[in-house]
Amino acid sequence: MTLQPNVSAPGSDPMTSARDVAVEVIGLSKNYGAVRALASVDLKIAAGEYFVLLGPSGGGKTTLLRLLGGFIRPSAGTVLLHGHDVSALPPNRRPTSMVFQSYALFPHMSVARNVGYGLKLQNMPKAEAKDRIAAMLELVGLTGYDARMPHELSGGQQQRVQLARSLVLERDVLLLDEPLAALDAKLRKDMCLELKHIQEKVGITFVHVTHNQEEAMTVADRLAIIAEGELIEAGTARDVYERPIKRFTADFVGERAIFDGTVASAEKTGVQLDLGFGTIAVKAPAEASAGAKASVSIRSELLELLPAEGKAPAGFETLEATYRESVYLGLTISHVVSLPDGSEIAVRDIAGAGPAKLPEAGAPVRIGWKAEDASLHLS
Amino acid sequence: MDEQYGSKLTHRLKWAYTLLLVATLMLPSCYVIYISFNEHGFGAAKYDFTFDWYKVIFTDKLLLNALGWTLRLAVLTTLIVVPFGLIAAKFYKTTRHKVLTVAVFLSPLFVPGDILGSALLVFFKNLSQMFEAFSDWLGNEWFYGWFDLGFFSALVGLIIYALPYVFIVILITMARYRDQQTEAARACGANAWQAFWHVEFPQIRAGIFSACAFTVILTFNEYIRTSLLKGGFDTFTSVLVSQMLNEGMSESSYAMSSLVTYIAVAVIGSIIVITLIRTESLEREARAKAQPAMAS
C-alpha cells in the first residue's frame, strides 16, 4: 500500500496560521543504508501546541522526534525551530529538551542534582538554581524528594523527575519519547492528564510520541499519524477519530468496520460503492470516478445490530450478516458478525443498552448505520 | 542453604573445590613470600625470620634500575592503552559491525606471545633500516635510530598485548550503561565531553580503574615480548628470569617478587573491597529509603 501524506498546505493550517510556528520540517528524510526510516515529511507545529506523533511501532515517529532533537542527522530536508534552521546543530545547541522513555535519569545523582544538571551547565548561581529546582519539583508534585536517588523512586516518580529536568531549562520545545510507555495502565492515565495540565501551565510546545491512542487523544491539541516512514494524516484528535481521510487512519485509530469496494456511481452529494455482495451509499462529496477502488468505514459504536427481517430505520444503510458471538468488555459489549464475503466486523453497544435478547450464533441479522456516519477513503 | 533444595554435600564440595582452586593458584606466591623472610634463603634446612632481604633490595642497583624502567613502562602503557581501550569500547557500542570490531581488537590475544614479539622485532628492524636508508638518500642522519629497539618498541609491544584485556574489561562495565543517559545530558545542554565526564565516566569508573590496575600488572608480568623488543635496558621480570636462569634466584629477588605481590594484592584487593563496601552501602541506603518513597 502506498501511503500519501495528507497535511494542510503551508500557511493554510488554521492551527499554525493563527499562532507562531514553533516547529517546521520540510522534506525531512532519514535512511539507514537501504532502509528508509522517514520519507520526506512536511509538518508544522504551532507555538504552545500539544502535538502528538501517533503510529504503530517502527513507523518512524521516534525517528522524526530524534531528528527534531538533533540526536540523528537527517538524510535530507530541513528542521526549523521558530524559523531558524537547526538541521546541522547538535542537541545541546537546539532550543529543545527531551523526556525519554525510561532509564534516562542519572543514577549517581540525587533528584535535585538531576533536575539542576542543565542549570549547572549554564553556570546559574546556586541560590537561583535551588529556587528553580524547588519550583519545578513542586510543579511535578515531588516536593521533598530532592535528596532521593533515582533508584529510590517509582517509575512514575522517575518520569516526573525527567519532566522537571527538561522543564527547568525553559526551552521552547519539549520532546517526549513514549514517556508513559513503561508505566502501568492506571498510572499512565493519571500522568496523561497531568502532562496536559502541566503543558497548559507552562505554555510551551510539547511534541509527544506514542503508539497508545487513548494517551494521544487525552493530551493532543493536534496529532499526526506516522506509519511506514510517512506522515499519513494530521488534524485535531476529534477530526482524526471521527472523520479520518485515509483508510490507514480509519483502520489504526479507534475501531471501525471497513468495507473495500469499487465506486459504482459518483455524484456531487455522494457515491455508491459496490462491495461485491451488496451496494452501499455514502453521503460524502468526493472526487471519485466510477470504477475507482475505494473504502468506506464506520465506527463500530455507530453500527447497529438489526433483525434480518423488517424495515430498516429511515436514512439507514444496511448489509446482511450472520451473528457469531458477543464479548463483554465492561463498559461495552462487542458483537461479532460475519459478512457474506467471510470477513468479520464488530458492532459495539454500551453494556445494557443493546437488545435484551441476543441472537443465537449463526442466526441471520443485518447491520445498519446512518449514511452520514460513514467515511469514504480513496487512498 | 536450608531454604534451598540442593544437598549439603554438593554445597560443601563446591566450597572445597573453590578453596582448592584458590590455594593452587596462590600457594606458589605464598611460598616465595615464606622464603623471602628466611635469613638462610631458598632450600636451607634452617628457618630464621628476617627482614634483611627486603633491606638488600634497596641496595641492589640492578634490580632497582630494572624496577624503575618497568614502572615507567607500566605508567606510559596505562596512560596510552586505557584511553585506547575506552575509545574502542565506545566504538563497539555504536558500530553495526560488532563481530568484526571484536575480532580486530581481540586478535592480539590469538597470536602467541613469542610469534607476536618476533614479528614486531622484524617490523621495527625493517622500519629502522628503511628510515636509515631514507636518511642516507637525504644525505643526513636525521632519521637514524628512530625505530631502534628500545623503550619505544617495548612500549608498542606492551600496548598491543594489553589492549584486548583493557577493551574487554571496559566493555563489560559499559554494558550496564544506557546511552539514553548521554542523550539526556546532551538534551540538558552538555557537549559531548561534558556528557561523558559528568554522566558516563562516574558509571564506568570502576571498569577504567580496574583496566589501569590490570595494565600495570600485565606490564610487570610480561616477559617474552618485552625481552625481544626492549633493546638495551632491563625490566624487573627480565632481571628476575635471567638471574634465575644464570645463577638461580637470589634472596633479594624473592623479597622483590614478594613486594610486587603485596602491591598487586593491595591494589586489586582495595578495588574489590571498596566496590563491595560501596555496593552494600548503596543497597542499605536504598532499603532504608525505598519503603517511604514507594508508599508516597
Summarize this, please?
The complex is a heterodimer of chains A (379) and B (296). With 379 residues, chain A is an alpha+beta fold.
Gap between N and C termini of chain B, in Å? Answer: 36 Å
Q: CATH architecture of the largest domain in chain A, please?
A: 3-Layer(aba) Sandwich
Number of helices of chain A: 9
Provide mean pLDDT of chain A, rounded. 87
Provide the CATH top-level class of the largest domain in chain A. Alpha Beta
Gross geometry of chain B: flat
Structural class based on helices, strands and sheet pairing of chain B: mainly alpha
Low-pLDDT windows of residues of chain B: 292-296
Strand-residue proportion of chain B = under 5%
Tell me what you see in this structure.
The complex is a heterodimer of chains A (379) and B (296). By secondary structure, chain A is an alpha+beta fold. Chain A folds into 2 domains: 21-95 and 171-242, Rossmann fold; 255-377, RNA polymerase II/Efflux pump adaptor protein, barrel-sandwich hybrid domain (OB fold (Dihydrolipoamide Acetyltransferase, E2P)). Chain A is built from 9 helices and 20 strands. Chain A has helices at 14-18, 61-69, 111-121, 126-139, 155-167, 185-202, 213-219, 237-242, 247-252, and strands at 21-32, 35-46, 50-54, 76-81, 84-85, 96-99, 173-177, 205-210, 222-227, 230-236, 256-266, 271-274, 279-282, 293-299, 304-307, 316-328, 332-338, 344-350, 364-370, 375-377. In chain A, the strands form 4 sheets. A 6-stranded mixed sheet of chain A has the order 6-7-8-3-9-10, with helices on both faces. A 5-stranded antiparallel sheet of chain A has the order 13-12-11-14-20. Mean pLDDT of chain A is 87; it is low at 1-18. Helix content of chain B is 77%, strand content 0%. In chain B, helix 1 (8-36) crosses helix 11 and helix 8 (192-221) runs antiparallel to helix 11 (251-295). The model of chain B is unreliable at 292-296 (pLDDT under 50). Chain B starts with 7 loop residues before the first helix and ends with a helix. With 296 residues, chain B is mostly helical. Chain B has helices at residues 8-36, 52-57, 61-94, 98-106, 113-138, 151-174, 180-187, 192-221, 224-229, 236-246, 251-295. The chains are: A alpha+beta (379), B mainly alpha (296). At the A-B interface, strand 6, helix 3 and helix 5 of A face helix 7, helix 8 and helix 11 of B.
